Amino acid sequence: MKRDGLFSLIRSDIVLKQNWFLHNDSWFNRNIRVFLEPGTIAVIVYRYGCWASKLPVPVLRHILLLPYLLCKIVVVMGFGIFIPTSFKCGRGFAIHNFTGIFLPPRVTVGDNFIVFQGVTVGYLRGSNGSRAPRIGSNVLLGAGAKVLGDVTVGDNVVVGANSLVISNVPDNCSVVGVPARIVSRGENGWMLEKAQARGNHW
Amino acid sequence: MPSLSADITRKMEVLGRSGFGGWLSAFFSPGSFAVMVYRFGRFGRDLRVPVVRQLIGALYYVLFYFVQMFTGISIQAYARIGRGFVVRNFSCIFVLAESIGDNFTVCEGVTVGNIRGRPRLAIIGNNVYLEPGCKVLGDITIGDNVVVRANSLVIKDVPSNSIAAGNPARISPLTT
After folding, report:
1. Which site among A146, A150, A159, A162 would you substitute to test the B interface, given the most B Cβ atoms closer than 10 Å to its Cβ?
2. Is the Cβ of B22 closer than 8 Å to some Cβ of chain A?
3. B150 and chain A in contact, CB less than 8 A
4. What is the dihedral of CA A72, A73, A79, A84, to 10 degrees?
5. What integer pLDDT is reported at residue A163 of this predicted model?
6. ipTM score of complex
7. Among 2.160.10.10, 2.30.40.10, 3.30.70.260, 2.170.8.10, what is the CATH number of B2-173?
8. Does B89 touch chain A (CB under 8 A)?
């Protein structure tokens, strides 16, 4: 599979955000204001950092990483969004709102990943080794949701607001609660349709 | 100050880092800055010399304001916190308690504070770990070796060697 370029990844992020959150919004909000949101800025900085840290030329890489580090300080201190470049995300990554978003290193996430404010994906206490969560495609983490420890979250999953996921979540379901329980199964094909702005899912 | 170096050492343990690079990453993190400013404010409050005490207090308020504004960590100097205090991440952290024991760990989104209408605050023991997003409210007592799971709400006493999870929290014994 061909690796996506920087601009195609950023475009996929913006398109996901437009399709998901700004589908019926005005032209100004869809195309201008989307770039002024802290979440969009954080995602663009993260994509730039991933691209710059993989450049093969050493000196050029260091020169291009310098603005990334400065932007990262602004994103971390100003917006409270922490995304290291060792966090691996596929096409389409939208952050809605800001503060308290912590995504750990060495985590792999599929396409169309949507994160709200206060979301932590991370390690359990005392296990800084390799036991990070694995997250599939078309996943929505609601406001304040926490996904901790050695768990697998499947495709087409909605994690409700303020839930705590510490056990595996199968494909096509919605989970809610502390600790999270499955409240509905199946019928999550609407997520992909909404991400691609097909159908009318409001 | 010995308690500051204990904080940094414990932060390196929590992050799983070692050596000089680990020390740097533990030192230059927003959580460590907040802990340092807290220790400075606590040091000023414990001083007996009148004028120096007020000067340190004024400087502390400026530092506290900036830490609060840039990192979103608000740790009031009123609380007495023991050695090895670690703030693991930052943003949305509010800690105000009567007294807190050694090896206290706080993650992002944690509130330790009072319930409306009740002036007393929480008393927290040693080796307490508050996972991201949990709230500990009211005049309750939390024992030693307690883990409060993420997104839990604790409004009742928690005995020693236990784990509190759920909203409101249910207590179960700590197994690990």
Report:
1. A146
2. no
3. yes
4. 40
5. 93
6. 0.82
7. 2.160.10.10
8. yes
